[in-house]
Design brief:
Blueprint (H helix, E strand, L loop, with lengths): L3 E4 L7 H6 L12 H13 L4 E5 L5 E10 L13 H15 L5 E9 L8 H15 L4 E6 L12 H4 L12 H8 L2 E16 H8 L7 E3 L8 E4 L4 E14 L1
Length: 247
């Protein structure tokens, strides 16, 4: 597929098309408070870490968000159990306080449905690595949302994250792209994203009754949502998988 991948800093006119790109994230994901608060700030404040891919006709078909942050200044450089949400909070705290970043974290790579199945995600990941290297960094880390885990919501993430095929590559397709691209699966981020809402909100987001106590399997969720109908709320705690990319 003929692609042109640039940073948003190089092509700021793509800001609106970037947001208009068709996507199919589950509705409940849109209600993660950390993402809701900070994703837009990446575009506004860190456009040099936003990648945009356009096709031969100039249409935006993929986007990639990343953030620089100070990992090694926080202890021994171990990646956080908080995963995706934690690294976003760290990145913008570091930006506010002027802390020197030493690592880049991938935040999101999204490919339009019309461009899927053509290796675009791998090219976006490679471009993200190249962009971090061009900014002087020696490592990219990624709190990967394994994209086939939703088919096995009851499977333990600690088993799923390290499951491999006969060829030794990860069983999960998105983890496989990362490993083929030079990444190493490091650890599980057990509480990477948290979405909480009233049972009424969960009914609206999912179309499910949310009237029984306990785990509720929701389309697109990597693990079940915990429902407390007597108290009127449900909580989803999503695990991700940390992958390290040495540059």
């Amino acid at each position: 597929m003929d692609l042109k991948i640039t940073t948003l800093a190089e092509r700021p006119e793509l800001t609106l098309p970037l947001w208009s790109m068709a996507e199919d994230w589950p509705e409940f994901i849109q209600h993660d408070p950390v993402g809701w608060s900070l994703i837009g700030r990446i575009v506004a404040e860190l456009p040099e870490y936003v990648l945009v891919a356009t096709d031969a006709g100039g249409e935006v078909v993929a986007r990639g968000f990343s953030v620089p942050f100070a990992l090694r200044a926080r202890g021994d450089g171990e990646l956080p159990d908080g995963g995706w949400g934690q690294v976003l909070l760290w990145a913008f705290s570091d930006l506010r306080h002027g802390a020197e970043a030493d690592t880049v974290s991938a935040i999101e790579i999204t490919v339009a449905e019309s461009a899927r199945g053509r290796g675009v995600s791998a090219r976006m990941l490679a471009a993200m690595r190249d962009n971090a290297r061009a900014h002087g960094f020696s490592e990219v880390v990624a709190p990967v949302r394994p994209n086939a885990k939703h088919r096995e919501p009851a499977a333990p993430i600690d088993e799923y994250a390290f499951r491999t095929r006969e060829d030794g590559l990860p069983y999960d397709p998105w983890l496989r792209v990362h490993v083929r691209g030079g990444g190493i699966v490091d650890k599980v981020a057990h509480a990477s994203m948290t979405v909480s809402g009233s049972t009424a909100q969960w009914r609206e987001w999912t179309g499910l009754p949310f009237d029984e106590e306990g785990p509720v399997e929701v389309a697109g969720a990597l693990v079940p949502v915990h429902c407390e109908p007597a108290r009127g709320y449900g909580v989803y705690v999503e695990p991700n998988v940390w992958v390290r990319h040495a540059l």
